Amino acid sequence: MITPALTVSNYRRQRVRRRARIGIKVQDLTTACANPAPLAHNRMPLYDSIEDVWRRADVPVSSLERLAEADAFRSLDLDRRAALWAIKGLAPSVLPLFAAAERFANRIESEFNEPSFPLAPMSEGADVVEDYGTTGLTLRRHPVSFLRDALTRRGVIACADLTRTRDGQRVRLGGLVLMRQRPGTAKGVMFMTIEDETGIANLIFWKDRIEAQRPIVIAAGMIGVTGILQCEGEVIHVIAKEVEDLTPLLARVGQAGMARQERAAGNERTIAVKARDFR
After folding, report:
1. Which H or E run includes 150?
2. Where are the alpha helices (DSSP H) in the chain?
3. Is 21 helix (H, G, I), strand (E, B) or coil?
4. Domains of the chain with CATH codes
5. CA-CA distance, 5 to 75, in Å (whole number)?
6. 230, 238 in Cβ contact below 8 A?
7. Which residues touch 146 (CB under 8 Å, ≥6 apart)?
8. What is the pLDDT of residue 194?
9. What gap in Å lies between CA 127 and CA 246, rounded to an integer?
10. pTM of the entire predicted model
11. Are the C-beta atoms of residues 198 and 160 closer than 8 Å to each other?
12. 139 — phi, psi (to 5°)?
């Protein structure tokens, strides 16, 4: 997977040789922009600045802000903070003088030149949180990797460690909830898949365990589970015995790498995990 980039991305994802590039169809973009498709690179010649995008694509500033939050301006050598700062300097409307300049010179001239000041880069954890908030995924470090030390102190092992664990042993896992499935033919049994930075683990919840801790099992975005490992050939799963809601830990991801002053400001966002639920 390759990150979205306004100067090369399509509206939706696209194949690039043997990889896929995320498109610019980020969350809430269609709400802010009635027709975001012209932003895609295959609809217009390449852009050379945010102001160039704003004037030629004729999109609201709010749409540019969503793209900046999705880190889509890296191809213009602008990270999230630099792109948002540049967008703040856009004028509220295109003045007639510049409209004329576009017609005759087919280029954009900045309204005024300001000295550039380097902005402090976002922390890696903050970038991951913003990725999830805009595209629903990240190509950076897995969120759970930022929490590994805290999980280890709780006795939580990595999903990859299950392959080196004996059948019937009691284990404790933690991860993001990817999928819940509760087939009508399974007599109330639920199957769940969780994920950490090392891989996935498949969990089985009997009906009595679901009823005992239903709010966590049904709604938590990140869970910790204690259970019994069962190995049948290459098939590995854990029978859940105890469940803990670890979703509050996700607030720490955005704080990773932040200076103390930034953490004290309390402006960090958290990751909203959207699991897929099946019947």
Report:
1. helix 148-153
2. 29-32, 50-57, 61-69, 80-88, 96-105, 124-134, 148-153, 207-212, 214-219, 260-265
3. strand
4. 14-121 (no CATH), 143-278 (2.40.50.140)
5. 6
6. yes
7. 125, 128, 252, 253, 256
8. 98
9. 21
10. 0.70
11. yes
12. -105, 5
| Total count of residues recorded for the chain | 279
Residue 3 has pLDDT above 70, yes or no: no
State both tokens at 4: 């979205």
For the stretch 105-139, pLDDT in tens is 555 455 555 566 676 778 889 989 988 888 888 88
> Token pair for residue 255?
């704080």
* Cross-strand partners of 194: 177, 201
* CA–CA distance, 162 with 229 (Å, rounded to integer): 8
Q: Shortest CA distance to 173 belongs to which of 192, 193, 155?
A: 155
Structure tokens at 231: 């190995």
CB within 8 A of 93, min separation 6: which ones? none
**Contact between 53 and 39 (Cβ < 8 Å):** yes
Q: What is the pLDDT of residue 58?
A: 80
Q: Which residue in this structure is represented by tokens 């306004």?
A: 6
Residue type at position 166: R
